[in-house]
């Protein structure tokens, strides 16, 4: 196999040619979306694991699954940003989602309200002169203007979630590197999801991060342990690891002997990134 046709992808967040061994997580995610869409509640999830096990790849798969059934996907990569930058990111992403759900020329009463809530959410940033957008929507009064990130973000989730419900679809917020969120940002997201669950709205947050995030979420809000599942992903089982090394090669007309595949699994211990590096 030449360099151009090489099917292995040792890279940060690159989806492998053979997506194997994560059926449990993808099935749980599909169930989550379908139950929320039908007005039922379901625990969301925060995927945990070490670097290189495929957390980002799994989030990308979640985005693909959500888009396939017509959901709006809001994707963010957490970083060590202050509240102003966080509000900017949330505003920009949710504005785009709202416009996809309901183009401005066809805004319903709920969509107009959601737009006004978003204006309120980012208003404090605008006043400081650090952020400007061509939006021209007056802020709401009494929504997302509390000056408290948790209360304000909850108002955003509820307002935009109502629009998604009206359009018989949903919104999923996918956040990678959750461990880089500040305590306040993480608390606010959990609080917003909690209220959305109570209102039975089709909007949720699914995250991925290093193993310590489960403890951080529990510390942020005690009810997080009941609101989320924290599945940990790790090395692939030997059978799945064999498939991950063999199948991409087969698609390019190359073969591994059984002994070579077994040796590859032994060397890498089934660790997803190492499998891609060795295969490459």
Sequence of secondary-structure elements: HEHEHHHEHEHHEHHH
Structural class: alpha/beta
- DSSP strand tally: 5
Task: Return residue spans where pLDDT drops below 50 for at least 5 consecutive residues.
Answer: none
Rg over CA atoms, rounded to whole Å, is 21 Å
* Sheet having the most strands: 5 strands, parallel
Shape: elongated
Give the oligomeric state of the chains in this entry, treating copies of one chain as homo and distinct chains as hetero: single chain
Distance between the termini: 10 Å
The fraction of residues in strands falls at: 5-15%
Count of helical stretches: 11
With strands numbered from the N-terminus, the spatial order across the biggest sheet is 2-3-4-1-5
Question: What is the average per-residue confidence, as pLDDT, rounded to a whole number?
Answer: 92
Percent helix range: 40-55%
Explain this structure:
With 280 residues, the chain is an alpha/beta fold. Helices cover 52% and strands 9% of the residues. The chain contains 11 helices and 5 strands. A 5-stranded parallel beta sheet has the order 2-3-4-1-5, with helices on both faces. Helix 3 runs parallel beside helix 5 and helix 9 packs across helix 10. The longest helix has 19 residues.
């Amino acid at each position: 196999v030449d360099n151009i046709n090489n099917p292995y992808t040792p890279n940060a967040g690159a989806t492998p040619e053979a997506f194997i061994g994560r059926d449990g997580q993808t099935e749980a995610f599909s169930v989550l979306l379908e139950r929320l869409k039908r007005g039922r509640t379901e625990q969301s999830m925060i995927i945990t694991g070490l670097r290189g096990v495929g957390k980002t790849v799994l989030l990308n798969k979640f985005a693909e699954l959500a888009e396939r059934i017509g959901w709006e996907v809001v994707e963010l990569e957490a970083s060590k940003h202050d509240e102003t930058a966080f509000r900017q990111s949330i505003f920009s992403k949710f504005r785009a989602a709202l416009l996809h759900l309901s183009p401005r020329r066809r805004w319903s009463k709920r969509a107009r309200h959601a737009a006004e809530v978003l204006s309120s959410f980012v208003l404090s940033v605008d006043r400081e002169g650090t952020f400007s957008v061509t939006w021209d929507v007056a802020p709401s009064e009494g929504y997302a203007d509390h000056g408290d990130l948790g209360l304000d973000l909850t108002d955003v989730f509820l307002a935009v979630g109502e629009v998604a419900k009206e359009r018989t679809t949903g919104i999923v917020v996918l956040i990678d590197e959750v461990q880089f969120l500040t305590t306040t940002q993480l608390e606010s997201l959990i609080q917003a999801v909690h209220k959305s669950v109570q209102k039975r709205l089709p909007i949720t947050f699914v995250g991925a991060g290093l193993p310590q995030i489960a403890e951080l979420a529990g510390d942020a809000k005690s009810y997080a342990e009941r609101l989320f599942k924290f599945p940990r992903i790790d090395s692939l089982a030997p059978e799945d690891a064999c498939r991950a090394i063999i199948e991409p090669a087969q698609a390019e007309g190359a073969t591994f002997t059984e002994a070579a595949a077994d040796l590859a699994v032994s060397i890498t211990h089934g660790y997803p990134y190492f499998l891609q590096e060795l295969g490459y």
